[in-house]
Specification:
By secondary structure, the chain is mostly helical. 76% of the residues lie in helices and 1% in strands. The protein has helices at 4-33, 43-70, 90-114, 121-139, 147-169, 177-201, 215-253, 256-274; strands spanning 80-81, 86-87. Strand 1 and strand 2 (86-87) form a beta hairpin.
């Protein structure tokens, strides 16, 4: 992750998942508020969405691990060099460990969707565990580095810890859209901040990195962190407006007779599921 691409990759992954979780939460909330949507958006659709989400998270984790291991100068699955008597690219192994725990979230998501005996809240528990592991890793990630490098990672750890606590709260507040969107907002904040760290420490233009000893840079990044968080609310607001408009427009396209037909079809599906 010691490059711009190394920070842009997890930033992109977190942005995709933060956006997706916001869409899913708003869609479920809108369907509960609009009674007629129960005949347009079936439980089978949400079931397929959960499976697709789990598969996507696993694919992202695998891509992240392979990228960290087999990039030029990477450890290539070697943890210790016995000839030289030293560890091999431990920072890369840090990142692989982070990706591995998020991969477990994807596996849990699939298992909870396919095995009815497993509690659905197990996914939230694994999510909070993955976030706490990520925070622990990045907290111990910057020993011996410059002041600016340490500061931007401290802000990242702060965002990760808050996200982990929110994910843990969801174990006790299931279906609360406010808590779910709050978690999505901090996931998006992580995504934005990963990109910001890349621009600060490894400018893609090839220019010099920011002055690591200039206190004004830290003052600006403090403000910038708050701006990034404000941006997440704008993104979620746009998503909320779009999803609610899409659902309402879909409802209005159906005539009462079509809704009644869909209702009968859903009742038949439910009776088959009960049998």
């Amino acid at each position: 992750m010691g490059s711009f691409k190394g920070h842009a990759l997890p930033g992109t992954f977190f942005f995709i998942m933060g956006t997706w979780w916001a869409i899913k939460s708003i869609l479920k909330y809108t369907c509960r508020k609009q009674k007629r949507t129960s005949y347009l958006i079936s439980k089978a659709l949400f079931y397929r969405m959960e499976l697709l989400e789990g598969i996507t998270i696993i694919c992202m984790a695998v891509i992240g691990i392979l990228g960290e291991q087999f990039i030029v100068g990477g450890p290539h699955l070697s943890l210790y060099n016995y000839k030289e008597g030293q560890w091999v690219q431990l920072l890369g192994w840090h990142h692989c460990t982070m990706y591995f725990f998020f991969g477990l979230v994807g596996v849990t998501n699939i298992l909870c969707s396919t095995i009815s005996s497993l509690p659905a809240s197990l996914t939230k528990l694994m999510m909070s565990n993955a976030l706490f592991v990520e925070a622990f890793i990045f907290y111990n990630h910057t020993h011996g580095r410059e002041m600016l490098d340490i500061f931007v990672h401290q802000l990242l750890v702060l965002a990760i810890l808050v996200t982990g606590f929110i994910a843990f709260m969801e174990l006790f507040t299931r279906g609360n859209i406010t808590v779910e969107l709050l978690r999505s907002s901090f996931i998006l904040l992580q995504a934005n901040w990963f990109w910001q760290i890349g621009f600060v420490l490894y400018p893609p233009s090839g220019g010099p990195a920011w002055d690591a000893t200039d206190h004004d840079n830290i003052m600006f990044l403090t403000i910038c962190f708050c701006w990034h968080y404000a941006l997440t609310f704008i993104i979620i607001g746009i998503i909320y407006a779009f999803v609610t408009w899409l659902v309402k427009s879909r409802i209005n396209r159906f005539s009462p007779s079509e809704v009644g037909l869909l209702k009968n079809v859903e009742r038949e599906q439910e009776s088959e599921e009960e049998m």
